[in-house]
Amino acid sequence: MCYGKCARCIGHSLLWLAVLCIVANILLYFPNGETKYASENNLSRFVWFFGGIAGGGLLMLLPAFVFIGLEEEDCCGCCGHDNCGKRCAMFSSILAALIGLSGSGYCVIVASLGLAEGPWCLDSLGQWNYTLAGTEGQYLLDSSTWSQCKEPKHIVEWNVTLFSVLLALGGIEFIFCLIQVINGLLGGICGYCCSHQQQYDC
Questions:
Q1: Measured between alpha carbons, how far is 53 from 170 in angstroms, rounded to an integer?
Q2: Structural element, H or E, at residue 156
Q3: CA dist 146 to 21, 31, 35, 80, 130, Å?
Q4: Neighbours of 61 (CB within 10 A)
Q5: Would you give the distance in Å from CA 119 to the centre of its chain?
Q6: What φ, ψ does residue 121 adopt, rounded to 5°?
Q7: How far is CA 50 from the centre of its chain?
Q8: Regions in the chain scoring below 70 on pLDDT
Q9: How far apart are CA 11 and CA 25, in angstroms?
Q10: Which of 62, 55, 66 is nearest to 22 (CA)?
């Protein structure tokens, strides 16, 4: 098999996942498409932790581009050093994958905390607070409690949906980066490509 091709596939996947994380995080700033809540700072504090923008988004672009750059069609040769240079590149990709693991892990943690605490909203007494925080996340299973948040409208659904999306995307990114750690290790040990026709040694 060609470990470089596998890395490139992972890189392209991470690129699209990073874009989706950034979009999901940005949407959290505009409940129901309104901007006033962001300008008045009436948003969940975990929205401002940039879990999707920084962790699952921008930080994920580095490993994504590194992985994409590993693969070449001929799958042999690197700066005149045959497979040796590419073995070093595969080992180096492990460092990029570790950066991706930290970024995706951060995204997952922030999204999980955002879901557990619930949204910052206006309650029936006219006060802004974390109305559902006292349920310790049980509100996720009991939609009848969502009506306690009066404003922004449908803020519970908005937060639950987008934080859940970030949680899922971050989890997928984490798995892909973990796969690349193994792929980079195997590619570095076995060579950039391992097959019956192609075997390269330094």
A1: 11
A2: helix 155-190
A3: 25, 15, 22, 64, 12
A4: 16
A5: 21
A6: -150, 170
A7: 11
A8: 1, 71-86, 191-202
A9: 21
A10: 55
Query: Are 17 and 200 in contact, with CB atoms under 8 Å apart?
Result: no
Q: What is the pLDDT of residues 126-178, one digit of tens each?
A: 999 999 998 888 999 999 999 999 999 999 999 999 999 999 999 999 999 99
Give the C-alpha distances (Å, rounded to integers) separating 126 from 95, 112, 150, 159, 190: 50, 27, 9, 20, 65
- Tell me which residue of 6, 12, 5, 1 sits closest to 63, measured CA to CA: 12
Buried b (16+ CB within 10 A) or exposed e, 94-123: bebbbebbebbbbbbbbbbebbbbbbbbbe
Angle ∠(11,186,20) on CA atoms, nearest 5: 20
Residue 144 corresponds to which tokens in the numbers above? Answer: 């009848």
